[in-house]
Design a protein that fits this description.
By secondary structure, the protein is of the alpha/beta class. Helix content is 46%, strand content 11%. It has an eight-stranded mixed β-sheet with strand order 3-2-1-4-5-6-7-8, with helices on both faces. The longest helix has 23 residues, at 140-162.
């Protein structure tokens, strides 16, 4: 990376915006995505629009079988129809699931036809301005970004192991750079004083830590866990969740396809099959902290693992039990 690139990236804005993607794109390795994913089953949550839809479309072009998961029937089926219209022969299927509903996650995973799962992309998310309670009583930001993905990962882990080289990707956010992991603030028992942007950033910080923990626990297997953040992409979620930000930055935002590029690369590129436990932006590893006061200690990381599993009613020792079979 040149000195100029380093300086521009440290501004953050000129790294996360579209100009950042175009600069970073110059270092991409040619041929990394010249692959045929025929026969591979990849699950994409939040696939009805934005980065999820762009990811599903790109994977369909690579001939993967894509399960496009969304919570709204009409929007998800419309997204599937769009992919089929734009990608001849696309093997895509609509799957209805609200990832924030933990019982539904368990039921959906149990009802999937038997077989290997080669990729699991945790992309579903929402930035809300008020507290929305899930059927289990959790605040929806925590449930959608943290608890639901953990339940799905645990439920689908045996199928991921069968695939011998499966890849799990969490779509995080650069907003997490401003936050220090504090497990006690993740669960909002009271509606008063709720800050949706802060809750979103906290959940994304938790995603990064959980991905690192899962990567370490699955280190001896072929299953890899990574997180990425897409930069600032022009998606319906950003337009709705951050209307002021979107209004002032719209001309500088990345396209959904540019935001999704690293997701597709992480799940499809053969050259990086051994990479695990990292945070990525534009196909390059990134530090997980930019500010010294945002570093968490091991005790807080351990607390996150235990508390998330307690909330989700999942045995915190499930990885050990699964891998000892």
């Amino acid at each position: 990376m040149s000195l100029l690139d380093t300086i521009l990236d440290r501004t953050v804005a000129l790294s996360f915006d579209r100009s950042g993607f175009l600069r970073h794109q110059r270092r991409f390795v040619p041929g990394d995505l010249d692959v045929d994913l025929s026969g591979r089953v990849i699950i994409v949550t939040g696939a009805s629009s934005g980065i999820g839809l762009a990811t599903a479309k790109a994977l369909a072009r690579l001939k993967a079988r894509v399960l496009m998961v969304g919570r709204d029937k009409a929007r998800t089926e419309a997204a599937v129809a769009l992919v089929r219209a734009e990608v001849p022969g696309a093997q895509v299927r609509a799957e209805l699931l609200d990832v924030s509903h933990l019982a539904a996650c368990r039921a959906w995973a149990a009802a999937l036809p038997e077989g290997e799962v080669h990729g699991l992309i945790h992309n579903a998310g929402a930035l809300v301005s008020r507290v929305i309670r899930t059927p289990e009583g959790f605040e929806s930001t925590l449930a959608c970004h943290v608890l639901g993905p953990m339940v799905l990962t645990e439920a689908l882990a045996p199928r991921l192991l069968l695939a011998q080289g499966a890849r799990v990707v969490f779509v995080a956010s650069g907003g997490m750079y401003s936050r220090r992991l504090d497990v006690d603030t993740l669960h909002h028992d009271q509606d008063k004083g709720f800050d949706g942007v802060q809750a979103y950033a906290d959940a994304k910080r938790a995603q990064v830590v959980l991905s690192e923990q899962l990567a370490a626990r699955f280190n001896a297997t072929g299953v890899t866990f990574n997180t990425m953040h897409p930069g600032w992409a022009d998606t319906p979620g950003v337009e709705k969740g951050l209307p002021t930000f979107h209004r002032f930055t719209a001309k500088h935002l990345r396209s959904p396809e540019e935001g999704a590029d690293t997701v597709v690369w992480l799940v499809a590129c053969p050259r990086i099959s051994g990479e695990r436990g990292k945070l990525w932006l534009d196909r390059a590893p990134q530090p997980t902290h930019l500010l010294p006061w945002t570093h968490e200690d091991e005790a807080e990381r351990d607390k996150l693992w235990a508390q998330v599993h307690a909330w989700a009613e999942v045995d915190p020792g499930w990885t050990t039990a699964l891998l000892s079979k």
